[in-house]
Design goal:
With about 210 residues, the protein is an alpha+beta fold. It has helices at about 1-20, 105-115, 150-160, 180-190, 195-205; strands at about 20-25, 30-35, 40, 50-55, 55-70, 75-80, 85-90, 95-100, 120, 130, 130-135, 145, 160-165. Helix 1 packs across helix 3 (about 150-160). The longest helix is centred in the N-terminal third of the chain and has 18 residues, at about 1-20. The N and C termini lie far apart (about 55 Å).
């Protein structure tokens, strides 16, 4: 009987902790690398674009990466150095990190030199600019791997800070009229993949 009561209490605690965690969504061009002291593991096959944080103030490490077409079958990849921002999360509100995407690769390179991003509640038209932190104080911690939706409750209780969601299937820049070709996108991610990820991909596409 006591054991049953303890299990019931633990389940209630999990639900309580999970109910006060909010989700931040990132566009494809802004890659979340770290949330406070938790490193976010990205991969060639599946990237993370949603993280779950408890209400309060957090530090996020991001990197800007974008792809621009230049002529037929030519493209330019633009990357920034990793940078830190500080966000404040209110209870009961989900958020989006947003930015003004450059019209061309030249403007994108200028943006990469000095990124400017904002945070806004989902469904709101108002966005709050986020200050870039020069040298945030965060301690090192184990890598946080991607978590399936069914595992989110356990992850939130275990880390007490951030749960990580794998990205949902989506098309890059769906709102733009001119999209990078599939071949350009494949080359873009191929250049970023490790040797092991490239080999795994080749094994997958050549498997009969």
């Amino acid at each position: 009987m006591r054991k049953l009561i303890r299990l019931t209490t633990a389940a209630a605690l999990c639900f309580s902790l999970n109910s006060v965690a909010e989700i931040i969504h990132f566009p494809e061009e802004l890659v979340p690398l770290q949330a406070d002291d938790r490193v976010i593991e990205q991969s060639f096959f599946s990237r993370v674009d949603d993280i779950e944080l408890a209400p309060g103030t957090h530090k996020l490490k991001l990197r800007y990466t974008d792809l621009y077409e230049q002529g037929y079958d030519n493209h330019t990849t633009v990357d920034s150095k990793p940078f830190w921002v500080q966000v404040t999360i209110d209870e009961g509100t989900d958020y989006e990190v947003v930015f003004n995407r450059a019209d061309n690769a030249v403007a994108a390179k200028a943006f990469a030199e000095s990124p400017q991003v904002s945070l806004k509640p989902k469904g709101s038209a108002l966005a709050e600019p986020l200050s870039i932190l020069s040298s945030p104080k965060v301690s090192a911690a184990p890598t946080v791997k991607q978590v399936a939706p069914a595992q989110v409750a356990t992850a939130t209780v275990t880390t007490g800070k951030a749960a990580i969601f794998p990205a949902k299937a989506s098309s890059r820049h769906a709102a733009t009229q001119k999209e990078p070709s599939a071949a350009a996108m494949l080359d873009f991610w191929w250049q970023k993949a490790t040797v092991q990820e490239r080999q795994a991909f080749l094994n997958k596409v050549t498997k009969k």
